[in-house]
From TrEMBL, chain A:
Domain called Nitrogenase/oxidoreductase component: residue spans: 20-445
InterPro entries in UniProt: ChlB/BchB/BchZ (IPR050152), Nase/OxRdtase_comp1 (IPR000510), Nase_comp1_CS (IPR000318), Nase_Fe-Fe_bsu (IPR014280)
Species assigned in the record: Trichlorobacter thiogenes
Pfam families: Oxidored_nitro (PF00148)
GO MF: nitrogenase activity
The family this protein is said to belong to: Belongs to the NifD/NifK/NifE/NifN family.
Alphabetically ordered keywords of this record: Nitrogen fixation
Annotated protein name in UniProt: Nitrogenase molybdenum-iron protein beta chain
TrEMBL record, chain B:
Keyword Metal-binding annotated: yes
GO molecular function: ATP binding; iron-sulfur cluster binding; metal ion binding; nitrogenase activity
Pfam families, sorted: Oxidored_nitro (PF00148)
Protein name: Nitrogenase protein alpha chain
């Protein structure tokens, strides 16, 4: 009985759990107000990422491409960055921030995006846009390194590094959420409000969910301002909820500006939310109010209705972003469930030293497998050829065919969840998220019991 | 036909030649927008890349193939589960995708060895699949991996497998169109003629430029089979790798999407003398003409005529029900390439819609020629549209509906223009007689959506009716219709199933036996 940590043995990927770094950098850039990312590479690197975001959020987001073609690939394509910046500034008068996001092609040909930024700052911006505030930020996100998770981490770090500047210390904290949904940000801001804590949230993405209004066009966009980013240096502390999605920026703020950082845990489940609130209390000196005691009580009440009767011993596979997967696994254990396989997508060598993974290795009392650098075949092959039996799958929509083909109920969690309606509106973090997750897991199992006529009568008297 | 200058694009004057308005009485000699030129960086184009054009549009609909992209994982991820090309082998090509997962060390030291390992692993994971397509990406092209050599090495070691290599990196050409061309030419050059065709009928065609979106290919195959025609291969929707290697055995290439697949037809004509016949599966009349042309070619016009009569009798009353209710509605016809001209004329003729704008993301000038010739006077034609121009056009033209892609559809939603997915369809198939009625049904449902109607109300300013608890589509569509239309007993709404494809797949066909030689 043990928890085994292993790497995928195959060299290739059969059905990827993750996409590549530029997607993560683009996801970070849409969180900033008056910002349009300019991706330096082929057009597909932007077109498909925009499609992916629009699939998940059912909204459109603005991202631009330098449209690199053969001649650029041969002779260098920095002239296309220069034109791209100029065209964006001419046509989007409100635009202030343009991250220049590299891709595999432009990293391989060695285009110097840092150099072109200096050139533009000294040339075009002085000559043509002297009266405008414009920030060009090179972000190196070659697709052949890491994954969309590290791309996001790099981009958050680069934005914070570029803007943060010490002025006067204030009582705010920085809350770096990681790769979350609008519903999560709402839930986190609710907890902060109850604690009466003023925070800079990176990133303010509640407006990713934007309305159809009587007065015309509303573009979905994040709301984190340049001032927010500058002010991160003055905060009394940083809490980065996710170790691998924003942790790098928290460490930077600590090292460069002496802003103390607490990294993790991802506040999924009651226990991790408790820890988050304790960390907030420690950092700010603010007490945890009665209202949150009550909110926690409501969640515990809801979970108690479900755990021993329905969730106990249910075997689960979980895949997705590492912080999310670990948080979900921890919560499942608290719910008496048995996470059997955790699939962490990319080849980040830091995962194996994660204290949360070490804790699982030391304490899990049944056979659990944690697979690094995993793809979907690692899961499907275990089910199809190695006898893995599961009651539930937790993960994003790209794994939907495993659930469909092997008749295993699945709750969509993470990014992207395009094959279910509106999930980006619901939180998985905080007490509200704990309740939502447990109840959705239960309802997913209930529907499956009825569909398969598997003790469906048990619900007669619940 | 003056060029149209968008206000949002006055600062990039080269865009001016990419849009025209079709003036009264004007034809194409007045002006034609520029086409298939490199996109202006930073303009927020909707174009994709040549890798996507080769792999995602044409390669992957091939159903019994391991589709492996040699590069970092993103290209593979992006082109997986983002289209609706189904197949009759449980959608293997939709469910499984493969990336060689190129990392930094491979960029530095080369990735041919790991590519070989990848290929072997993939075949091992799916022992029942013996065919593979390898796609080059930007990264593998730039480091100069010899993918063909690796593929040959594996084929030498594993004689039971066959591998096709498509070298179409993302940076090749202005749009996905470059990839269409590359894969067409590579397939005929490397694969056609490498297997002997199994001829089972008297009349043998390749069905080309058809991608089986939501079952288009299945519905069209039904007509061919009812005429006693053997569809030797489909390039590529629901198509089989080995069938496509035998394309040289057909008597006729029946071409649907000329934008993406005319290249292979032209080569089949040059190399094997197989004639090309352009057809159109969209719309009753174009389809009837197409079936007649195919019938004429083989001398079986009577069979075509019988199908046309049966299908028209079955479906025309349903199409007409929608036509009465769609008359005069304004459409922005904003697809990728060929639907611009496949649809422009026929949605006007057969559904009563007015095309107020056409655009093309990756079409060439000849697509625009055909599209502009077929759309209404006053229509705005845009080449390589970008985000701001699209918004400006929609605000100006105030269309009742827009046919475009998923993401631009989200932009339209905010301007309160309903959208239908022109690439993947809403509830297709849209080809064939039944499919065309389904298209009309989807348009009707979108335009007369009660929720869409509510989106125009401003509850803070407008007088809100307080005596209405609901609306139906017909309460919205039928108010201004003449009584004889509303109460017509001939016309009816669509009567098919949610999924109409299984019924087509389960049919049997009278003429499919090859005539014995003695009867010839």
């Amino acid at each position: 009985m043990s928890c085994e940590v292993m790497n995928k043995e195959r060299v290739g990927v059969i059905n990827p759990i993750f996409t590549c770094q530029p997607c993560g950098a683009q996801f970070a850039s849409i969180g900033i107000k008056d910002c349009i990312g300019l991706v330096h590479g082929g057009q597909g690197c932007v077109m498909f990422v925009r499609l992916l975001f629009s699939q998940h959020f059912k909204e459109s987001f603005e991202l631009a491409s330098t449209s690199v073609h053969e001649e650029g690939a041969v002779f260098g394509a920095l002239n296309r960055v220069e034109t791209g910046v100029d065209v964006l500034l001419m046509r989007y008068p409100h635009l202030k921030v343009i991250p220049i996001i590299s891709t595999c092609s432009t990293e391989i040909i060695g285009d110097d995006i840092d150099g072109v930024v200096i050139k533009l700052n000294e040339g075009l911006l002085q000559e043509k846009y002297a009266d405008r505030e414009v920030h060009l930020i090179p972000i190196h996100s070659p697709s052949f390194v890491g994954s969309m998770v590290s791309g996001y981490d790099v981009a958050v770090h680069d934005f914070v590094k570029y803007f943060s500047k010490k002025d006067k210390p204030n009582l705010k904290i920085n809350l770096i959420t990681g790769w979350v949904n609008p519903g999560d940000v709402t839930a986190l801001k609710h907890l902060l409000a109850e604690m009466q804590i003023d925070a800079t949230v990176l990133f303010e993405i509640e407006n990713f969910d934007s309305p159809v209004m009587p007065d015309g066009n509303h573009v979905s966009h994040g709301n984190t301002t340049i001032e927010d980013l500058i002010g991160t240096a003055d905060a009394q502390g940083t809490i980065a909820l996710n170790r691998y999605e924003g942790g790098k920026a928290a460490k930077f703020l600590q090292k460069r500006w002496d802003v103390p950082a607490i990294i993790g845990p991802t506040p999924i489940g009651i226990r991790n939310t408790d820890t988050f609130l304790q960390n907030l209390k420690t950092m700010t000196g603010k007490p945890i109010p009665e209202s949150l005691v009550r909110e926690r009580g409501l969640a515990i009440d809801a979970l108690t209705d479900l755990t021993h009767l329905f969730l106990a011993d249910k075997k689960v596979a979980i895949y997705g972003n590492a912080d999310l997967v670990i948080g979900l696994a921890e919560f499942c254990l608290d719910l008496e469930m048995k996470p059997m396989v955790l699939l962490l997508g990319d080849d980040n060598s830091a995962y194996k030293d994660d204290p949360r993974i070490k804790a699982l290795q030391e304490n899990v009392d049944y056979d659990m497998q944690i697979i690094m650098n995993a793809d979907f075949w690692e899961l499907e092959n275990r089910i199809k050829n190695e006898g893995l039996e599961l009651d539930l799958i937790l993960g994003h929509s790209k794994g939907r065919f495993i659930s469909i083909d092997y008749n295993i109920p699945m709750l969509r969690v993470g990014f992207p969840t395009y094959d279910r309606a509106g999930l980006h509106r619901y939180p998985v973090v905080g007490y509200a998220g704990a309740t939502w997750l447990a109840e959705q897991m239960a309802n997913t199992l209930f529907a499956d019991m009825e569909y398969k006529k598997n003790k469906e009568w048990i619900l007669n008297v619940w | 036909m003056p060029y149209h200058e968008f206000e949002c694009s006055t600062c990039i004057p080269e865009r001016k030649k990419h849009a025209v308005i079709k003036g009264p009485g004007e034809d194409l000699t007045s002006a034609l927008p520029e086409g298939y030129l490199n996109t202006i960086p930073g303009s927020i184009t909707e174009r994709g890349c040549a890798y996507c054009g080769a792999k995602h549009v044409i390669g992957t609909p091939m159903k019994d193939v391991i589709h492996l992209s040699h590069g970092p994982v993103g290209c593979t991820y992006d082109t997986w589960q983002t289209k609706r090309y189904i197949s009759d082998n449980d959608n293997f090509q939709l469910k499984y995708t493969y990336a060689s997962d190129m990392k930094e060390k491979h960029i530095v030291f080369g990735a041919e060895k790991m590519l070989k390992q990848n290929i072997i692993e993939a075949f091992k994971a799916f022992p029942e699949i013996k065919r593979m397509t390898l796609y080059q990406t930007c990264a593998s092209a730039l480091i100069g991996d010899d993918i063909n050599a690796v593929a040959q090495e594996v084929m030498d070691e594993m004689p039971e497998v066959d591998i096709f290599v498509c070298n179409s990196p993302g940076f090749r050409g202005p749009s996905q169109s470059g990839g269409h061309h590359t894969i067409n030419i590579a397939w005929i050059k490397d694969k056609v003629g490498t297997i002997e065709p199994k001829i089972t009928g008297d009349y043998v065609i390749n069905y080309v430029g058809e991608y089986n979106i939501q079952g288009d290919e299945v519905i069209m195959q039904d007509y061919f089979k009812r005429m006693g025609i053997q569809v030797l291969s489909t390039f590529t929707g629901n198509g089989s790798y080995d069938d496509l290697r035998a394309m040289h055995g057909a008597h006729l290439n029946v071409l649907e999407c000329a934008r993406s697949a005319e290249y292979i037809c032209n080569e089949l004509r040059v190399r094997y003398g197989i004639p090309r016949l352009d057809i159109d599966g969209f719309g009753f009349e174009p389809l009837a003409q197409s079936l007649r042309k195919v019938g004429l070619f083989f001398g079986i016009e009577d069979r075509a005529q019988k199908i046309i009569e049966e299908e028209t009798a079955r479906w025309k009353p349903e199409l007409d029900w929608y036509k009465e209710r769609l008359m005069g509605k304004k459409v922005c016809l904003w697809p990728g390439g060929s639907k611009l001209w496949h649809w422009a004329h026929v949605i006007h003729e057969e559904m009563g819609l007015d095309v107020v704008s056409v655009y093309t993301k990756f079409g060439h000038q000849q697509d625009m020629e055909k599209g502009i010739a077929r759309c209404e006077e006053g229509a705005l034609a845009i080449d390589d549209p970008n985000e701001l121009e699209s918004v400006e056009a929609m605000l100006k033209l105030k269309p009742d509906i827009i046919f475009t892609g998923k993401r631009p559809g989200e932009v339209a939603k905010k301007i309160r223009v309903p959208y239908l997915n022109a690439h993947a369809y809403h509830n297709g198939p849209y080809k064939g007689y039944e499919g065309w009625v389904r298209f009309a049904r989807d348009i009707y449902n979108a335009i007369y959506s009660p929720i869409h109607q509510l989106s125009f109300l401003d509850i803070s300013k407008d007088e809100i009716p307080t005596n209405q608890g609901f609306a139906t589509q017909q309460m919205l569509s039928d108010t201004t219709l003449p009584e004889e239309v509303v109460s017509s007993r001939e016309m009816r709404q669509y009567t098919g199933n949610y999924d109409c494809i299984p019924d087509y797949l389960n049919k049997t066909y009278p003429y499919m036996q090859k005539t014995p030689a003695s009867e010839n």
